Amino acid sequence: MARKKLTHLDAQGRPAMVDVSAKPATAREAVAECRVRFPAAVAQALRKGGMKTGKGAVVDTAIIAGTMAVKRTHELVPFCHPLPIDGCRFDVAWSGEVVLRIECGVRTTHRTGVEMEALTGATVAALTVYDMCKAHSHAIVIGPAKLLAKRGGKRDVGKARA
After folding, report:
1. pLDDT by residue for the chain (162 residues), tens digit each?
2. Which sequence positions are flagged as catalytic?
């Protein structure tokens, strides 16, 4: 198997942002998820309390934090390009009795994709859930975080969205 060239290194092996100026601007989308696993008693208390804690509405706050993170990904991840975000949406729902699933979908029309933005949004939303719920327990577990799909650019990854 041929080794792939790392794109964030220049000819001398130094860190470098990828030059995307020759690429065409196309519609791009990425969807990522991050999960938050609660101890059973905490999950039960959250459900009973309508996903509110003493700090406020958990899901609403997580969506706001995740959206802010999507828009600032280039400030957090060194070689991400600043991108115009055309759309960002979150789906937060229970996946079983103790796991909260956070999905973040991001769209742009640009020369590079939004995978890092989707992953950052989902992960920061999960961190916000932890922050809002940690008074109940520090045994809350975040992860895994993973890319579910991306469209646009050289290749598509994952299953098409319905």
Report:
1. 555 665 777 778 788 888 888 899 999 999 999 999 999 999 999 999 999 999 999 999 999 999 999 999 999 999 999 999 999 999 999 999 999 999 999 999 999 999 999 999 999 999 999 999 999 999 999 999 999 999 998 889 997 564
2. 131
Residue 45's identity, in one-letter code, is A
Query: At 34, phi and psi to the nearest 5?
Result: -140, 145
Please tell me the pTM assigned to this model: 0.91
Question: Which residues contact residue 82 at a Cβ distance below 8 angstroms, ignoring those fewer than 6 apart?
Answer: 74
Both tokens of 127, joined, read 């961190």
Separation of alpha carbons 137 and 116, rounded Å = 29
